[in-house]
């Protein structure tokens, strides 16, 4: 009965005998159980190690309360099983990634459940060898404010992974997001933007793609797509949108040209297509103040439209 917690059948007999006897020696138990004393000693030692038995007066033994002792063993075994379950999940991820890369059996694998989705997504994100193509579109499983995307992407960019990202207009309107994107551009990311995107998409090494299956709850389920006509179509969709998208550039402020860092930020936001309201939120100012600063920047580059402001900045070498 206690084999599940590491107690052998014979050791259980010894423990049961102790429960019905006064403090006993190995010799007493050998007489009671009609077993050789040489078998009793090791059994008592293991029961003592497990916490089921305690020594009394040196050579005698007494049972520990079963409620406490067996409960402790059960909890230890549960902890070991939980640890094994966690290790199994890592092995499953490795096995899944291997099969998806080398032995795909089906065009699409559906992964469901927040924990599984996070594990698979994290595995994919950390393993691209050559390239990542992405449609970046809210909502997010982890809000950008709680996720350091610069720290996450930096190692990939530093080892030469090509990262091309098209940002949905709503993604760039999130507070502080454009600053992060600008820093990623400085690190080597190629970024563009469109007012709206049809879906969230991640393509790794042009061999695997992830598409969330729920628009509102992105961590509920994803489709993992491996080499197939469907993957080719998704890559073609990305390339078609890339051609139409507007490049996002990191504006360089040059004191000699009269462009201070805040004006550079406004110019970058104009180039990214942010609305006046979104620029106000990014700057943390009122809409009236934001419009005043927008007008000042456009006057500085002698532009009457946002497009002209971007062209003038490019001509002057600010972007």
From TrEMBL:
Single Gene Ontology MF annotation: DNA binding
InterPro entries: Sig_transdc_resp-reg_C-effctor, TrmB-like, Tscrpt_reg_LuxR_C, Tscrpt_reg_TrmB_N, WH-like_DNA-bd_sf, WH_DNA-bd_sf
SUPFAM superfamilies according to UniProt: C-terminal effector domain of the bipartite response regulators, Phospholipase D/nuclease, Winged helix' DNA-binding domain
Ranges of residues in domain HTH luxR-type: 252-317
Superkingdom of origin organism: Bacteria
GO biological process: regulation of DNA-templated transcription
Pfam families with a match to the protein in the record: TrmB (PF01978)
Protein name: Transcriptional regulator
Organism in which the protein naturally occurs: Virgisporangium aurantiacum
Lineage of producing organism: Bacteria, Bacillati, Actinomycetota, Actinomycetes, Micromonosporales
